[in-house]
Amino acid sequence: MDIQFFKESPFTTIISFHKLIESFEEIAQSDIDYRSNYAKAILEQIELIPELRTGIQDYSVIKNNEALIKNILADLFPTALTQNEIKAVTIPFQNISFNYTERFKKILKNAGDEFYMEIRDFSEHQFYINNCCLILSNYYKQHIDFNQPFFYDIPDENGIEKHYRILYNADFMEIIPTENSIPLTQEDIDQLIDNYNDINLWKSKFPKGSWILRGFGIVSLFDATTESAISILKSNLLKPGPKTVATDQEVSNIFQSIFNLPNLKVGFIIYNPEEEKFIRPAKYENQMKSFLLSSDQEVDCKNAFFGCSFENLLDNREPFVISNVSKFTEEQTNKRLGEHLLQQGIQSCIFAPVIKSGHLLGVVELVSENPRDLNSVNATKLDLVLPYLTDTIDRYNTDMQHQIEAIIQREYTTIHPSVYWKFKRESQNYFQNMNHTKDYIFKEIVFKNVYPLYGQIDIKGSSEHRNETVKIDLKSQLTALLEIFDNQESNSNLVLLEQRKFELESLRSELDFPLKADTEQHVQRYIEEEIHPILKNTKSNAKSEKLEKLYFEKLDEKTGMFYHERKKFDNAMSIINKRLATVLDRKQVEAQQIYPHYYERFKTDGVEHNLYIGASISPTKPFDIMYLHNLRLWQLQTLCEMELEHHDLKESLPYELDVTSLILVFSSALSIRFRMDEKRFDVDGTYNARYEVVKKRIDKSHIKGTNERITEKEKITIVYSQNSEEAEYLKYIKYLQHKKILEPSIEQFEVEDLQGVSGLRAIRVKVINNNSNPEIKKITYQDLLDELN
User: Fold this and answer.
1) What are phi and psi of 640, to 5 degrees?
2) Buried b (16+ CB within 10 A) or exposed e, 434-467
3) Shortest CA distance to 163 belongs to which of 111, 93, 95?
4) Per-residue pLDDT tens digits for 517-554
5) Global pTM?
6) N or C: where does the chain have the smaller number of CB atoms within 10 Å of the terminal CB?
7) What is the DSSP letter of 698?
8) How far is CA 676 from each of CA 610, 672, 687, rounded to the nearest angstrom?
């Protein structure tokens, strides 16, 4: 017969009652008449079925003699305890069991005909090796602690999963080697003990069916539902990450087992102490829901929605229990909350605060569709699980803070991955040397002997363009207002209207001259304070009313002013900056493969970038000056690509803007230091400051002896001071001319003297733009706006 749950086992199993039969034979020889007579009667029946002594391998023998076997086992299965004990005859770890107590029969009947009893999380690997360990323990007398908690998970008549701990009694079993068994030395046993996971090794030492397991065992179950459910809950709550966290159904099943309520559901909300709000964490929205915040993402704790009900929970940190929601709703102060619960079919509920170190972390919600299912008595069961919920929500909050800090570092600070290791090392030093009696002094983050590279693409004449768009918008708005006033009906405010028309015309005339610093603000304030009140309080005819409606429709929601031309300009600036920054960032990924280096970029009226390369930034990799030359060529090529990107964008832009490109060459190594107050790197030392001075002033400088700027649209200007730098970049230019990226002609000139800096020279060369990408020209302005948003 097939009596094993798994197909392979080191045992051939033979069910035998020989040990009990031998005890009956001893009793039959005793002087106690009633015991002796009972034993003799049993033995007479056993003689008719010799397999009961010699061994049973055909399960039908057991089924056909259930009454006799029950009598044989009567001393081990007392009738008085059959309604209480959960016990049966079995073979450890195997799938055969019989002679159930009445309570065991009832449990299996309630589970249903389709239920199949199997040990929780018990694999074929464990089955085989546990049987081998039985042999090592009982035959070889090895002290091996291979016992671990085993459980049966059996649903009751309501579908609630109950958890039963399994205990085995193997006193009536014996283990016998066959001719196929392999004798083991202590060295073999030690090897097995050290290699639990090597199933092939165990099978080689204990071949399939090489031992006989003769006799029977007794399995006893005890209801460990609460303890096991808490353990399962703990395991689920400790799962890392949102993708592996337990779902609301899994958690509900666990709580159903603990509270013995089939309709119990669970939710939770987080408490935000800074804003005094309850929050439904979006991170777990698909795994765990909330019944208090079924539709809202967050709600103020003092919201009238909660009425006075939550005062005890918030102030005294005590659970809030509603055993009958319908009755609770009858009171006016509870009406809103009660109706909210009733709409979800909730008739009883518990809202328990999760507390750690006196601080409220969140609220766990237990709800049921039946009145009085949840009440103040069974609410005490929460004491068993709240510690684990506390640790989980606290871990969620800590994890959230860490992720927020990581986002801040990634999005809002300048700690580049290439230098992160040094910040991390200093932070580790701080963490390991924390002393409450002494302040730790942070070491400065300095990288010495690094070579700088600076480049920029600047939007040409951006200030002039911006001023021009401001003028156009202001003139359009003033003209629209004057047209409204011209169509106003004559009334008592006629004199005031004439004065305002005069002032509007004066303001419009001023816009024919260069824009002053405060002109825009002055006009805006005048319109808002003097003109708009008149429009709102003056009666208008049909034409004037129509003009007013059109006027107010044209006002920008944020500024309250005409913002059409400025918006085109701002959008064009943003599109250019975003596209150029994207090219630079994409190319930077490739550049890091040349040699790890520090990189930062800024978007202003264009895109500028700083690079620093040197051995101190990547001390684990040998540095050679060749890497600097490679990076310089990469920078020049990247600026060419950015120029082409802009050229291809120009036709689609709402406002045509040109750009100029610049590279500053600086061959001396310098030091950069992280400025704690500014949270950014800057060059270190007085001599090195010369480099920063040149960076800030060079793009607005002129060719020496002329009024012509050193930068020009569609051209790249390379500023340098040494002959070696000139020779190096002329080689790069020659190479890119060969690649048909740069035009053949080259301009070379001296740069005018800057404050404290003289002797600078420059090379200027035009980028060939007739090889642009034809696909980009198909992009519309709306496409660019969608991309921007």
Assistant:
1) -60, -45
2) eeeeeeeeeeebebeebbbbbbbbbbbebeebbb
3) 111
4) 788 888 888 888 888 887 777 666 777 778 888 888 88
5) 0.54
6) C
7) G
8) 19, 13, 21
